[in-house]
Design goal:
2 domains; elongated
């Protein structure tokens, strides 16, 4: 385990910005190491944790949910982690359904707009004013 990374090297290794590292530290998602020789030194474990946070966000977890996942014991909390992931899947599927309905409604407005005459009010603009 390397324990000699500056915050800049840590951020680069995890493909995040330095301010992101500091933000995660303020949120309690990432431990702030004590200073050694006037500088904080980070380890590969910090890189792994940052990468985990970014991966979890990529699949739709909020930072609050990431904190919950990070608090689980790697060896014993499979059930809880699986439950959180299942709930996230349901949430994503619900959002997909809602977005599909929104897209259908917009498609209908576009069709109405295409079929309407120039002297009729635009259904897209009329809808947004109502």
């Amino acid at each position: 385990m390397k324990t000699n990374l500056s915050i800049g090297k840590l951020a680069k290794a995890a493909d995040v910005g330095v301010e992101t590292v500091r933000y995660y530290q303020r949120r309690g998602l990432l431990e702030t190491p004590s200073e050694t020789g006037g500088m904080r030194r980070y380890s590969d474990d910090h890189v792994d944790r940052l990468r985990f946070i970014k991966r979890a966000q990529t699949v739709g977890f909020t930072l609050e949910e990431v904190a919950d996942l990070l608090s689980l014991n790697d060896n014993r909390d499979h059930h809880v982690a699986r439950q959180l992931a299942s709930e996230k899947i349901q949430d994503i599927e619900l959002r997909i359904t809602r977005l599909g309905k929104m897209a259908d409604a917009l498609r209908q407005l576009v069709r109405e707009c295409e079929c309407g005459g120039e002297d009729m009010p635009c259904p897209i603009i009329r809808m947004s004013l109502e």
